[in-house]
Amino acid sequence: MDALAAVLAVAGVRGAIAATVNAAEPWGLSLDAVPRAAFHAVTDGTAWLRVRGEPGIRLMPGDLVLLPAGAAHTLASGPGAHAQPWDRLAAGQALAPGGELTVGTGTVQTRILCASYHQDPAVTLPLLTLLPDVLHIPASRANPGLDATLRLLASELGQPQPGAAAVLNRLVDILLVQILRIWTASGTSPARPASWLTALTDPIAGPALALLHTQPERPWTVDAMAAGIGVSRATLARRFAAKVGQSPAAYLTRWRMDLAAQRLRDTDDTAGAIARSLGYTSEYAFNRAFTRQRRTPPGRYRAQARSASTSG
Question: Which residue has better confidence, 58 or 10?
Fold first, then answer.
């Protein structure tokens, strides 16, 4: 398992189909801001995306757009088309999650898959928030994997079969991985701050991240990591800090605490057992590290997290 796979597995970033929009011109939908990432894939026809403060984007067949912060936005047949509130239209059609939302009364010309992504709140390692406010991937930038996924998506939408909702939700998860691959491979720029995500493709920081993510229980030192990837200690320390934005030790502690937080919430494992599984030689050392990171002791965190899960 590589670093991206490890984070996706632990962060619990999952996609869910909101609806398939079937639109006949002229049409428009306004969507309020939401506390999760919004995603749209155009499988047929065209659409215009408008986000306040951003230039309008014409979406073509095969285009994807991700709004990681869930910003309010508009989808429409043209830049000036009147937009109806999504929530009001959905309520009027008694739209169930994953259902079909019809806009306009003529012949359907545009079909858009709309979905959302949610990250486990127990995980502090950022993922979606590292991406730009509007991430547009035109069909022309699609790699073979993304292209194949989109074709399968269009096939499922065009000829629904038993289990279609399950297939579509899995495809949305796969699309996120494809989006992240394309974005990380597109290179760095001054506008991109240092982060674990942008460091994945670095020839030194990337392999170091893989070691930390896949073997968090090991007593890693910079010397041991440098030997594992075949570079000098000084080179690794300098490159990791520059590309990731913090030292390997600080990053490893954060990753361990994310793993611990999930286990405290989701299992009955003792703090001592969790501590040992994450490489701590004593429960006391683990408790100190967890309290420093989460500002609450493990036992209290467990009680609060479970209470929040129950009430939610």
Answer: 58
